[in-house]
Design a protein that fits this description.
By secondary structure, this protein is an alpha+beta fold. Helix content is 52%, strand content 12%. The longest helix is centred in the C-terminal third of the chain and has 33 residues, at 308-340. The chain folds into 3 domains: 2-183, BirA Bifunctional Protein, domain 2 (2-Layer Sandwich); 206-305, no CATH class; 309-425, no CATH class. α4 crosses α14 (308-340) and α15 (353-379) packs across α16. The radius of gyration is 25 Å and the shape is globular. The N and C termini lie far apart (52 Å).
Length: 431
């Protein structure tokens, strides 16, 4: 779970632009989740109230805009939990607050929804301004705590040391231990898939940047053929070009830069380039013959856009995966609580080590099965027509076969024969 914060000084132009972004309906479903300490009909009026409150103090900032991007789709209870963590950390209880959710979004390594929090800088009750000193590391600390409680997956931060110290000061030693075990004292931070300027430029051009990058990653990891990759690029109006460095493979939509392959895959540029030379050599060689102003026509791009039926099918797939990811996150957080909170529990609360170890192993196996089920859904759309029981049974067979080093498509007779041969080769073995 990641988050960022931006300050606004009360400009009406900025308020209108932000309001338009919050209520944008293209490829998403906006929702006003909650409003506190405000009584207005329109959200832009709420921003104007926040701006007017600055007259009661010497504050120059009218409001803060925080966005929270989770790895999984958040439920209503999880959204409320994240909001409460932010409110507690920044002491926003007496300040105006509006919470928005953008739902049914194409995923790009994250969930199908994300949050926007608008916090008034000046309180209408106390007329005091928020203390937003060191707001970035404090927000990262909240995101780390939310990741532990909801997702079970840590996110590296440049403020790792101060986050760990703050967590220990708040009595969350188990979360601090988890961050150190997962990321180390000084985590390695990979370059982001997309920058803010890339995201804004793509939005202005009407290009679905998040959907393009997530679909490209899925195709690459599922060993798509060169013809499938070429059709995917053509359908999105994207051409492959060499980047500034020799090992960088860049993608452009007309004059818009929409990403580089190694950053989208989060892998080393040299390794990705060598694999690309083996898998898509003709697409790379075609770079020299592509002029910088050449791209598929707008008519073809419009014709090849996903239909409403394709979009509904993708959302149905995403919702089914979201349901499994919700179960997966619950198992991860339970396993983490057994590993880390048991260290800090009192003598009365401690359970036997054997009991805890058994439960941890069972949870880890269940996580592997759910992760394999998600992979099956991404790899083959045919699983959407199968029942949940069939999907989980297939995933369990794959996990069991991997644990025993047995191919999942081998018959029981072949497995039995192999076991008999291995037993015969062991001297002195007897049943």
């Amino acid at each position: 779970m990641i988050g960022r914060a931006f300050s606004y000084r009360g400009s009406l132009t900025d308020a209108r632009r932000l309001d338009a972004h919050l209520w944008k309906e293209k490829d998403q479903r906006p929702e006003l989740v909650e409003m506190r300490n405000l009584c207005v009909r329109q959200t832009i009026d709420g921003m104007q109230v926040m701006a007017a409150l600055t007259a009661a103090s010497r504050a120059e900032i009218a409001l803060w805009h925080l966005y929270v991007s989770p790895r999984k789709t958040l439920t209503a209870a999880e959204v409320a939990r994240v909001v409460d963590l932010v409110v507690t950390e920044f002491k926003v209880r007496d300040h105006p607050l509006m919470v928005f959710a953008h739902n049914d979004k194409p995923r790009a390594g994250g969930g199908a929804n994300h949050l926007h929090l608008l916090m008034g800088h000046v309180s209408p009750i106390t007329f005091r301004a928020l203390d937003m000193r060191h707001h970035a590391p404090r927000l990262h600390k909240v995101m780390a705590l939310a990741a532990y409680l909801i997702e079970g997956k840590a996110v590296p931060s440049r403020w790792q040391k101060s986050i760990i110290e703050a967590l220990r000061a708040d009595g969350n030693d188990h979360v601090a231990d988890w961050l150190i075990d997962e990321l180390g004292a000084v985590p390695v931070i990979n370059a982001p898939r997309m920058t803010d300027s890339m995201r804004r430029s793509a939005q202005a051009a009407g290009f679905p940047l998040a959907g393009f990058q997530s679909e490209l990653e899925r195709l690459w990891k599922n060993s798509a053929t060169e013809a499938e990759m070429a059709w995917f690029f053509y359908r999105n109006g994207v051409v492959v070009r060499r980047g500034n460095a020799g090992n960088v493979i860049a993608f452009h939509h007309e004059k818009l830069f929409v990403g580089s392959l190694h950053r989208i895959l989060r892998q080393d540029a040299l390794i990705v380039h060598q694999e690309a030379q083996r898998r898509i050599p003709r697409l790379l060689d075609a770079d020299e013959s592509i002029a910088h102003n050449v791209a598929p026509s707008n008519a073809w791009a419009e014709l090849l856009k996903p239909s409403d039926a394709e979009r509904r099918a993708r959302l149905d797939l995403q919702k089914r995966i979201d349901a499994i990811e919700g179960q997966l996150a619950g198992l991860k957080t339970e396993r983490l609580s057994l590993i880390y909170q048991s260290r800090h529990a009192g003598s009365r609360e401690q359970r036997s080590q054997d009991e805890i170890g058994t439960r941890i192993r069972r949870l880890a196996r269940a996580e592997s099965i759910l992760e394999e089920a998600i992979s099956l859904l991404w790899q083959n759309a045919g699983w959407m027509t199968r029942s949940e029981l069939e999907l989980m049974q297939a995933a369990e067979r794959i996990v069991s076969s991997a644990a025993e080093n047995i191919a999942p498509n081998r018959s029981d007779i072949e497995i039995t024969q192999r076991e008999e041969i291995e037993q015969a080769l062991v001297p002195g073995w007897s049943p």
